[in-house]
Amino acid sequence: EAQVTQNPRYLITVTGKKLTVTCSQNMNHEYMSWYRQDPGLGLRQIYYSMNVEVTDKGDVPEGYKVSRKEKRNFPLILESPSPNQTSLYFCASRIGTSGGRETQYFGPGTRLLVL
Amino acid sequence: SQQGEEDPQALSIQEGENATMNCSYKTSINNLQWYRQNSGRGLVHLILIRSNEREKHSGRLRVTLDTSKKSSSLLITASRAADTASYFCAGWGSNYKLTFGKGTLLTVNP
Fold first, then answer.
1. Interface of A with B in 1-30 (CB under 8 A)
2. How many CB atoms lie within 10 A of CB B104?
3. Does residue B96 register a pLDDT over 70?
């Protein structure tokens, strides 16, 4: 089944404790991205990657890191989480970057609470 | 900054009625997409309309796009309780980013 998976789905952590949220897609998609969703703000893009070893900042990259060593995986790293990073996070992927015509497929979301 | 702004923010209708949601965007787009999100779940792609298209249909969905006004509308006909969800428009710009609006919360009462 074609899908985007994220782990963990729920996470409670404390300020400053490094964490990684994994994202994996099995559709051989080139483009992957991370969003956070907050009440009243909609979805905002954190980082995106157009291919292996190619990543770029989205609209709200501060406090986050990503890596794209393999095509299928795009982990989101919070080196020193803070309470303002409490949010619902979505990973997404799409086929490629040409023309912008393809749709994005979203993972189920990771709900993060930073105490 | 948000690419899209949905209107209204919340809409409550009775089952069987039509629901219309509007979206305005700021910059040029290659295409505009509509997504649905059930409470706390992932987003599901509904329909994509390209910048050179004016109207598109998919089942009970009808989307229009007016690039001169930088606006789009999503019409759901004969709504069902299962259509209750948040609906987002998202514009795909030339910078390879898909930028979302804040969404319209649709409630369909049985």
1. none
2. 22
3. no
Tokens of residue B25, six digits: 């965007």
**Whether B99 and A59 lie within 8 Å, measured CB to CB:** yes
SS3 content of chain B, % helix, strand, coil (to 5): 5, 60, 40
B:42-71 residues touching chain A, CB 8 A cutoff: 42-45, 48, 50
Residues of chain A with pLDDT under 70: 96-102
Tokens standing for residue A100: 């912008």
What does DSSP say about strands B10-14 and B104-109: parallel, antiparallel, or unpaired? parallel
Whole-angstrom Cα distance, residue A112 to residue A55?
23
Contact A111 B92 (CB under 8 A): no
Residues of A in contact with B94 (CB under 8 A): 100
Structure tokens given for A39: 């009440």
Contact A76, A46 (CB under 8 A): yes
CA neighbor of A64 nearest in space, from A86, A84, A80, A83: A80
Widest distance between CA atoms in chain A: 42
A101 vs B31, B88, B90: nearest CB = B31
Nearest C-alpha neighbor of B6 from the set B82, B83, B90, B78: B90
Residue B4 has a pLDDT of 66
